[in-house]
Specification:
43% of the residues lie in helices and 21% in strands. It is an alpha/beta fold and 233 residues long.
């Protein structure tokens, strides 16, 4: 049973969403603000979390930043319809997805399930011989799906589930262009709609993480109006 943390200062949302998730078979923990959640996470991290952005004491952005220092667990942001800047910033800082308020609880459940499925695939049991053979090397890049491990020039790079899948999709065929629609299919289930800005934000954050270990990283090329391409270095 997966443990989901809900962090929101709106008690009505905490109550209604937790009831929905529990009915779907999840174990749910609820917190009224970011500080309360952070203190609980220091004792035991959930399997994934859903954060509101605007909260007292510690908002969702601060909480995300603190959590990302220690964990790459999947995180979904809840945003209001006017929070476009916050959505993009949140994705660049390390959120895996966002859902706009007011939202369909069915949609939120589907996005949670999609992220958990990918996390399970990437964080599975000890790899078999077949899984070990799936380690991919592309120039200076090495990716190990069984261990959710990425190295660039021998240095570890910590990626979220979505970032890992996007990089893997691009690096599998160096020199070939992947459109945003193709990358959406890789990163999200068919029933989950995301727009171009979401993919762009993930790619920007992915580049930032790669450049943190190598400021000259330029393997991911943008082809404006078309998509992205991985070039071996």
């Amino acid at each position: 049973m997966s443990r989901i943390a809900l962090v929101d200062d709106d008690r009505n949302i905490l109550t209604s969403v937790s009831m929905t998730l529990e009915a779907e078979g999840f174990e749910v923990e609820t917190y009224n603000d970011g500080q309360q959640a952070l203190e609980a996470f220091a004792k035991k991290l959930p399997d994934m979390a859903v954060f509101d952005i605007k909260m007292p004491r510690m908002d969702g952005m601060d909480l995300l930043q603190r959590v990302r220092q220690k964990s790459s667990m999947p995180i979904i942001f809840l945003t209001s319809k006017d929070d476009e800047i916050d959505e993009v910033l949140g994705l660049r800082m390390g959120a895996d997805d966002y859902v706009k308020k007011p939202f369909s609880q069915r949609l939120l459940v589907e996005r949670i399930r999609a992220l958990l499925r990918r996390q399970e695939v990437l964080s599975g049991e000890e790899p078999t011989a077949a899984e070990a053979s799936q380690v991919m090397a592309r120039g200076q890049l090495t990716m190990d799906p069984a261990r959710h491990a990425v190295k660039w020039k021998g240095m570890d790079v910590a990626l979220t589930v979505t970032e890992f899948l996007l990089l893997q999709a691009l690096a599998q065929r160096p020199g070939f262009v992947k459109s945003r629609d193709q990358l959406m299919d890789v990163a999200y289930d068919d029933q989950v709609y995301v727009d171009d800005r979401t993919i762009d934000s993930h790619i920007k954050r992915l580049r930032k993480k790669m450049r943190a270990v190598d400021e000259d990283f330029s393997a991911i090329e943008t082809l404006y109006g078309i998509g992205y391409r991985y070039n071996e270095e």
